[in-house]
Design goal:
The protein is of the alpha+beta class. It has 7 helices and 15 strands.
């Protein structure tokens, strides 16, 4: 980039002048370019950010292209349910973040996939290679990952017809053993970290079915017809039966339970009791058994 020093910057330091002339870049970044020998003033290389500018001088700045962030492959435990030339189906444990994000630079499912799967689809970019859908960090269960771009496109195109079944342990027992919740979901205007049922939200449809009545709780199967953020969690809360352990959408309902031992079990359950139990794909049906923490919770509630 080339810029001319205006009269009002005559006598200014080079790093300060560059900051004023190139506001898209920080002063520390521009000072580093000076020190690396990437800046010339009036045809001469200058390596001192304190160099004084002269009105009318031309400054030439060599700004390198940004280096891509490297996502490391990491040998993390990964339970593979199925693998072929097109897809990998895995059983995600609770507590595992799907892809790198703020606060989770590594130790994610993507880091594990890069180690175990050598031919991931590039669709989704470096942060989400092959990721067709995602589960919340504390939701466990079945996920499918595309191994090449054609498989990714095919899965994405067919995703609305893929059957996705979840099991949830909720407070209370639904009045009707089965039903459909059809309510639009969008960002909660009072809490940007949460989703909510809002009139201007996107349509969201969840079918639910009572699997087992428990003490003060129920095991419920939910089948998604749409895939909105936190859909099951928001819809079950709207039904009056929030998921046990859900820090965002469930309050301390356990306080009203007379059994003190059961109170402690519910109060200390470390995550939302939600599990992706089944995916029905064109190539087969893939199941994940309930993880040990949820089976132990059910045993305590029986």
């Amino acid at each position: 980039m080339k810029v001319i020093v205006p009269a009002d910057l005559d006598g200014a330091r080079l790093d300060r002048g560059l900051t004023a002339l190139l506001p898209a870049h920080s002063r520390s970044f521009l000072a580093r370019l000076v020190e690396e020998g990437r800046v010339a003033v009036a045809g001469r290389d200058v390596t001192k950010p304190s160099h004084r500018l002269v009105s009318g001088d031309e400054i030439e700045v060599d700004i390198p292209p940004p280096s891509p962030a490297e996502i490391a492959s990491q040998d993390l435990p990964l339970t593979v349910i199925h693998e072929d030339d097109d897809i990998v189906v895995i059983d995600k444990p609770p507590g595992l973040v799907v892809h790198p994000a703020a606060g989770h630079a590594d130790q994610t499912l993507v880091n594990a996939l890069l180690f175990h799967v050598k031919d991931l689809s590039g669709v989704g970019g470096q942060l989400r290679p092959g990721i067709v859908h995602r589960l919340d960090k504390d939701t466990s269960g079945v996920m499918v990952i595309a191994k090449h771009d054609a498989a990714h496109r095919a899965l994405t195109a067919a995703w609305s017809s893929v059957r996705k079944e979840y099991l949830a342990i909720v407070y209370g027992t639904p009045k009707t053993p089965r039903g459909t919740i059809d309510a639009p979901i969008g960002r909660d205007p009072r809490n940007r970290k949460r989703m909510a049922i809002v009139a201007a939200g996107r349509r969201a449809v969840t079918d639910y079915e009572l699997v087992e009545s428990l003490r003060h709780a129920s095991l419920v199967r939910c089948t998604l017809r749409t895939g909105r953020t936190h859909q099951i969690r928001v819809h079950l809360k709207s039904l009056g039966h929030p998921i046990i352990g859900d820090a965002l959408y469930s309050g301390p309902q356990w306080k009203g339970i007379p059994d003190k031992r059961l109170q402690k079990v519910l109060a200390t359950f470390p995550r939302q009791a939600l599990h992706a139990a089944r995916l029905v794909l064109p190539v087969g049906v893939f199941d994940s058994p309930l993880p040990l923490d949820m089976t132990a919770l059910i045993d305590a509630l029986r």
